[in-house]
Design brief:
With 641 residues, the protein is of the alpha/beta class. It has 20 helices and 22 strands. 35% of the residues lie in helices and 18% in strands. The longest helix is centred in the first third of the chain and has 20 residues.
């Protein structure tokens, strides 16, 4: 029998979402497809989305886990607003994701679990595969589970164990549809299940069976080709935000010559940083999994006192618990990097969902006047650079630094160009080596004398002869560091600690403003992970023929020195955030500029299509015209996203 000739269709971009029960292996499937895509050379952005429960009720909407990957032959910025292809492994996965699809999208459904019981659990009264409710979509009904069980029956697995390989069958089918290389997945499965040959061989067989099914069946008459993207020369790898952040902390330790000490308590979505750093003892990294959040930050402060680079990682609830200890690090003026991978709150909130609502906590979430610098990465790969920058500031200025990542960046991934060593800053800890006050036999070491440029105090490693000193949480006398209750001294020290944080701005470059025409009246200003959706929305408005500027803040405290001048250059300033307007509040207070907020707190990234229309409306107001985006407001154009 001759296999039917398949049509090959060229595309410039595709968004695929794998969705199923939390036990169906959707995260693994999506990750493997992503790795195949990275090897092929496409630009890509991913969005994993999974329940907070360890094992949510099977077959229910709360138990649905999904993984979305957007890949293209050109530069893209987001994981995409709406999937072009949905792979649904059960009724709940279909129902939970159907609302995100646009007309004409492709749905591949595993029919095996569309039983009356599972339909009821998902909230269906009738089987959507048998009525006309899916008429607006291209639907492929495939018994993925049944074909998987049949394909792997030679390995003698129970039906339950055999059916678990259905995600590999689906991966094989999608790999065929989009011309993904298969060797990386075969190698991965071979290594992962090397000690259980039957499971290894069953998964590889299921993967290949999915590929061959696509190749031979008449149900899929078209396969698609998305050419590799053109990128600047360099060595690339696919990387998640948490992995990039861990590498950035290691690089900061190497560039400063300091051992890295991580004191941490596991918490979603920051735990992967602890897991990764624990693998790198060869770079002088020590990891301590503490009994609680307070112990973790306390140990990190102790490491900094001892002359190491103290780091603690957490999410919003952990920052709340660490707040007093962070205040201690501010009072003692010790380097410390506090990583907050933000998630939905308050309290336990939405542990596996993303949010940007910890900015004001980072600014003001301690008792007394306790300022600290704040930096935020804009993409998964940028987490590396943000971590190195946080280390630079912490060591140079002798201060805790808050690094605000979030769940979208932490778990999402993108191609990352590995930097060369000469691109990284040299960070000098400049330890104190001698007494610094008085002369001769009367010379002393004063722990609170200050560098004129940075206002940083000297950092003396305990045990250095002649540099014995005391640190603690009580107010210090200027210079000598002895406990002081003098009102004037306290006022001076409070102002000095603030002035030291303000001095960080002296080392920051001017704010980069993307305003190609120079004629824009509207500036879109963001921070953190809103960079991708903002950039995609701005591209759409420009493609429709209108002028709009974009800028993105890495440094949130202190702000870049020219930020006020930049804001006043535009008639209107839009600030999109995944909170209720925290950066907007700070900008209004600092610069008396009436910025316009666009705010959503849904536990999901902002959508570029919605942002494009918000930006267009504001451009229309500023230019006293009606802005029509037309097709450029849709996510189907190559220059978009």
């Amino acid at each position: 029998m001759v296999a039917p000739e398949k049509q090959v269709k060229q595309l410039d971009r595709v968004i695929i979402r794998f969705a199923g029960d939390s036990g169906d292996g959707m995260q693994l499937t999506g990750d493997r497809f992503t790795q195949e895509t990275a090897v092929f050379g496409n630009d890509l952005v991913t969005l994993p989305n999974f329940p907070a429960e360890i094992r949510a009720p099977q077959g229910t909407l709360p138990g649905v886990s999904s993984f979305q990957v957007h890949f293209a032959d050109h530069d893209i910025l987001t994981a995409g607003d709406a999937p072009d292809v949905l792979v649904a492994m059960n009724p709940a996965a279909l129902r939970a994701n159907l609302g995100d699809l646009t007309s004409g999208a492709t749905i591949i459904v595993d029919t095996h679990d569309f039983t009356a019981r599972n339909l009821t659990k998902a909230g269906y009264q009738d089987n959507p595969l048998e009525d006309d409710s899916l008429r607006d979509f291209v639907v492929h009904t495939v018994d993925l589970t049944g074909m998987t069980v049949e394909a792997v029956k030679e390995f003698g697995l129970s039906r339950k164990d055999a059916s678990r390989a259905k995600n590999m069958f689906a991966l094989g089918l999608l790999s065929w549809m989009y011309g993904r290389p298969t060797d990386p997945t075969v190698d991965f499965v071979s290594k992962r299940f090397a000690k259980v040959p039957d499971i290894r061989d069953a998964n590889i067989t299921a993967f290949k069976a999915g590929w061959y099914f696509g190749e031979t069946t008449e149900a899929f008459a078209v396969r698609y080709e998305i050419k590799p993207a053109t990128m600047p020369p360099g060595t690339y790898r696919n990387i998640t935000g948490n992995l990039a952040l861990a590498y950035g902390l290691i690089a900061g330790g190497v560039q400063s010559g300091l051992p890295v000490f991580l004191g941490s308590y596991p918490i979603t979505p920051a735990s992967d940083i602890l897991h990764e750093l624990s693998k790198h003892k060869g770079f002088g990294v020590t990891t301590f999994q503490a009994e609680d959040e307070i112990a973790g930050v306390g140990a990190a402060i102790g490491a900094s006192f001892a002359g190491q680079l103290g780091v603690t990682t957490t999410s919003g609830p952990g920052v709340s618990l660490k707040s007093e200890a962070i205040g201690l690090a501010i009072m003692t003026e010790l380097p410390l990097v506090v990583v907050d991978v933000q998630r939905g709150g308050p309290s336990t909130g939405l542990p596996t969902k993303t949010e940007q609502a910890d900015l004001l906590q980072a600014m003001f979430g301690r008792n007394g006047e306790a300022p600290l610098p704040i930096v935020a990465p804009q993409s998964p790969g940028d987490c590396f650079d943000a971590a190195v920058e946080a280390v630079r500031i912490a060591i140079t200025y002798r201060t805790p630094v808050m690094l605000l990542s979030d769940g979208y960046l932490a778990n999402g991934s993108e191609p990352w160009r590995v930097p060369s060593l000469d691109e990284l800053p040299v960070i000098d800890p400049a330890f104190a080596t001698g007494r610094n006050h008085g002369e001769g036999d009367d010379a002393e070491f004063w722990p609170y004398l200050r560098d004129e440029a940075t206002l940083a105090r000297p950092w003396a490693v305990p045990g250095t002869p002649g540099l014995e000193h005391r640190l603690g949480g009580l107010e210090k006398g200027d210079g000598h560091g002895n406990i002081s209750y003098d009102p004037a001294n306290h006022d001076f020290m409070v102002r000095t600690r603030q002035a030291k944080v303000d001095r960080v701005a002296d080392s920051l470059p001017p704010l980069e403003v993307d305003d190609p025409s120079g004629e824009a009246k509207v500036l879109v200003l963001g921070w953190g992970s809103t960079y991708g959706p903002i950039g995609a929305g701005v591209r759409r408005v420009r493609k429709a023929g209108y002028h709009v500027a974009q800028a993105h803040l890495r440094h949130l405290n202190p702000f870049p020195k020219d930020l006020g001048e930049v804001l006043r250059r535009y008639d209107k300033v839009l600030v999109p955030e995944m909170n209720l307007g925290q950066l907007s509040l700070l900008l209004r207070a600092e610069y008396l500029v009436d910025v316009v907020g666009y705010n959503e707190v849904r536990g999901l990234p902002l959508k570029a299509t919605q942002l494009a229309h918000v930006i267009a409306d504001l451009v229309g107001q500023a230019e006293d015209t009606t802005v029509e985006l037309g097709i450029w407001g849709l996510p189907s154009q190559k220059e978009e996203v």
